Amino acid sequence: MEIDSMVANSALIRAREGGGSKGRSWKWKEMLRFPHISQCMDLAMNIERDYYSLCVKQPIGKKLFELFCRSRPELQNYISLLDALEAFDSKSDEQRKEFGVSIIQRFLRSQKHEQSCIQSLELNPFKDVFHDYLHKYLSGETFIQYQESMFFDRFLQWNWFICLQPITKHAFRQYRLLGKGGFGEVWACQVRATGMMYACKKLEKTHVKKRKGEGMALNEKQILEGLDSRFVVNLAYAYETKHALCMVLTMMSGGDLKYHIHNIGSPGLDKERVRFYAAEVCCGLIHLHQKSILYRDLKPENILLDDNGHIRISDLGLAVRLTDGQLVRGRVGTVGYMAPEVIGHKHYGMSADWWGLGCLIYEMTAGQPPLRARGEHPKPSEMERRILTEQEEYGDKFSKQVKDLCSSLLNKDPAQRLGCRGSGGTEVQSHPFFEKVNFRMLEAGLVEPPFKPDPRLVYCSDVQDIEEFSSVKGVTLDQTDSNFYSQFITGSVPITWQNEMIETGCFRELNTFGPEGSRSPDLDW
Ligand code: ADP
Ligand code: MG
Ligand code: MG
Predict the structure, then answer these.
(1) What is the ipTM of this complex?
(2) Does this model's pTM top 0.95?
(3) Which of 153, 256, 297, 315 is catalytic?
(4) What PROSITE patterns does the database record attribute to this sequence (predicted)?
(5) Quick check: CB of 318 below 6 Å from ligand 1?
């Protein structure tokens, strides 16, 4: 490895280790100084007063609402219920039924909801019966009182950063180059104010224009900002520099699955890893499909590992939103991974992604994609012919179950394919291969990954091995381009930004209040 590469890697490793408080700028408190509440009046007027969004979905909103409830003696019962529910969520399946009944007996006695709660619990112990009950209560009078409180004022102050603070390149420190994409490079970066590490995907403006990539870039950005899944990379910021449009994404430092399948040890992964990654990808696809998004680019290269060993789906450039269950057409994807109906110019829907999952599980198991021999690089037309007409083979690396799963997902007829026969992704989750997987715990992030990336390693090519990004000449940027940029550069994405504040400890350290009972939160340091 060359010296430059070693220096770049060790700078990144040090930043990662210091991630959080050590990585903050010494001026961080100044950068995150709350505006005076009088500066938040426009925000207060315009913010949508939706209980679910303000008090459940938004992480800082949820915390402040909870702090408010804790400050009210008459709500103590609800707080205890909230605490019990937190414990409930982390219980194993066996404990949940019993624990659930004890919660009902403790809190819902003599309530008219008791009977219906016990019934739902019996039908399905995993359903959030209590949460429904709790939110029904708290979204009434309590939510109205909350909006009159200093806790809501504080929420507006936090929101001011999200809505009114412009984001520029000065908000970040830049580390090494991580990879190269179609329109530009991806760099490791760190938010100066919080120490949070991210990956910044840059799209060179001249490249985007020359290759008419505006629609694709905006599509990827808009799809990402509408998602909030632990199995898909999150978008944290969208901003511009003089030469590039930038998407700041969840940092995935564990490398992609292509690297893990082909570059470490013998090609392929052991069965526990195959099961775990397949299960997480399956959840990610379900989240996308629930939002009517068809991903269309499933392949090992696009599945990235974080530092704990969980995966996220990345690179949503080819994803498409299907309105009202409509189908799409278009030969879109990567050669060798496209479903027969995609190759064959047919109209298709979510079936294309379940085919992709079949290819992924096949490749993780066999160490090579279906219908391709090791080291073989057939022409695209030959690959397509094989996908349309040939039957893939299953060597002795395949157990009976994984073979059955792959062949059901790789069914050439989309109507017969697993995942496409009415109940969608839950049908895939119910396959015997996943019998040992507890999807509720997996969804909650409570399953320990079978492999944890080494924090002292950088799982990507050396800096000098990543091909330099060529510049384009003779493209001039004009007003039409600026109009498009202004649609793209929407700044901070609320939920991701709020999670960043919480995860890095900035929320806890800054969210102090003045003397008890004072309405105006403490503004000076
Ligand atoms: P493109 O859409 O242009 O192909 P990608 O989104 O695939 O761009 O990113 C290009 C490369 O950058 C990837 O192959 C990967 O090596 C790296 N990369 C992308 N996103 C991340 C991320 N969130 N964390 C770490 N590396 C990333
Ligand atoms: Mg890519
Ligand atoms: Mg892409």
Answers:
(1) 0.98
(2) no
(3) 297
(4) AGC_KINASE_CTER, PROTEIN_KINASE_ATP, PROTEIN_KINASE_DOM, PROTEIN_KINASE_ST, RGS
(5) no
